[in-house]
Amino acid sequence: MPAQSITIQGTGSYAPERVMTNAELAHRVATSDEWIRTRSGIRERRIAAPGEASSDMAVQAATRALADANARADEIDLLIVATFTPDLPMPSAACIIQNKLGLSPAAACFDLNAACSGFIYALDAGCAMLASGRYHRALVIGVEKLSPVVDWSDRTTCVLFGDGAGAAVLGVGSEPGRGLLGTNLGTLGDSVELLYIPADGRFIKMKGREVFKAAVRAMEDISRSILEQHGLNGSHIALVIPHQANLRIIETLAEYLEMPMDRFFVNVDRYGNTSAASIPMALDEARRSGRIKPGDLILLVAFGAGLTYGSALIRW
């Protein structure tokens, strides 16, 4: 737990304009709307426009988060970008975003790759760096352009993923007990082969059934762990914002945690799995739709390639 209160001062999100429905996918690969919805809960996903890079989507989300926080770009002295689909292998997407946003040259900027758990990892890193006293205001972004790394002839993966970005502005709070209360992170590095992109390839490879089982187990464990550390149980949580990978995973997690589905925020039906962008996009939508109120306890929980997993507990 950070030594001082670190709060989320603003949020923002962005989804590309183009909507790809299940019906459209059914014309490209042997599948159907019913098959996709039954197995994933996904109805549609967003696809970046030609020439629209991860950095472009990130800037859109970040600009909205800065406006929401009433913050100027030159006030940000720390930028962390969670992504495994940067514009270029080198330099980092954070460097490109820093320039596009007009952040100070003195700002520390770097990328972080923890796949679908990326935003929680970046949130933890950002809060720790702010709590050190060496940084004062941070911008944390989760962004993925997954459409180029999806094999559109493989129905086991292409139906699941979409493009998007989400962002949050972090700052030092003045109210003890508010903001980030704690995080738990973990890694199952012996299971890399379950979800990966080959070094000599460009498309996502996934063993769906094994990932499903590992995801539910890890998300349940990391959720229970952080609640127990703070002397809490599911009844204290106003809203769970899980990684939006698959509706069946979310429903199974709710069952295992013995929590009603109406306390889980779900938008996977409209965006699919946007990896590191998933949780910040959902967080922004939940807040702007009135699902999050001052004083609410919010649980973030994610699982992704690595295999990485993590949870974060926030008092809004």
- Largest sheet descriptor: 5 strands, mixed
Question: In the CATH hierarchy, what is the architecture of the largest domain at level 2?
Answer: 3-Layer(aba) Sandwich
CATH first level of the largest domain: Alpha Beta
Percentage of residues in DSSP E strands: 15-25%
Characterise this structure.
- The protein is α/β, with parallel strands linked by helices.
- It has 2 domains: 6-172, Thiolase/Chalcone synthase (Peroxisomal Thiolase, Chain A, domain 1); 179-315, 3-Layer(aba) Sandwich (Peroxisomal Thiolase, Chain A, domain 1), CATH 3.40.47.
- The protein has helices at 22-26, 33-40, 54-68, 93-101, 118-131, 155-158, 208-229, 247-256, 268-271, 278-288; strands spanning 6-14, 18-21, 44-47, 78-82, 108-112, 137-144, 164-172, 179-187, 195-196, 205-206, 239-242, 297-304, 308-315.
- Strands 1-7-6-4-5 form a 5-stranded mixed beta sheet, sandwiched between helices.
- Helix 7 (208-229) crosses helix 8 (247-256).
- The radius of gyration is 18 Å and the shape is globular.
- The chain starts with 5 loop residues before the first strand and ends with a strand.
